[in-house]
Design a protein that fits this description.
Helix content is 75%, strand content 0%. By secondary structure, it is mostly helical. The longest helix is centred in the first third of the chain and has 22 residues, at 16-37.
Length: 137
Amino acid sequence: MATFNELMQKYVNEDYSTLVAMAQKALSNLIPVCKKVDPDNDGFMMVSSLVLSAIGADGTLTALERKFLRDVMGLSDENISKYIKMYNSRMADLADHFADNMSTDIKADTAMLIICICACDEKISRDETAFIRKLLA
């Protein structure tokens, strides 16, 4: 059986288009749940907490992560800049709380989305690994 780090490396080694497809599938499964949890914002803030927590886990936005947001979420470069400015540290706690209180399937989709975002720039940092481990705990 593969170790956690070996599993994370598997995602880092995936080709970009596969990561985009996996993230889009996970996101499509998560949006209806996020809408139920966050009806006042039609799920936007919950989805944003998940996505921005993954981006913010290591404190940097790489060019590949920017491209990933564009490809997965359909955001323009201008909107990505605005979107990133929405991030605050409470979003990571909200994402963790969300994952802790969902079914195994939804927790798996949450983890898949986060892992794909973290792996899209061809590395998963120590901080990103710690965030993923916390989500899965």
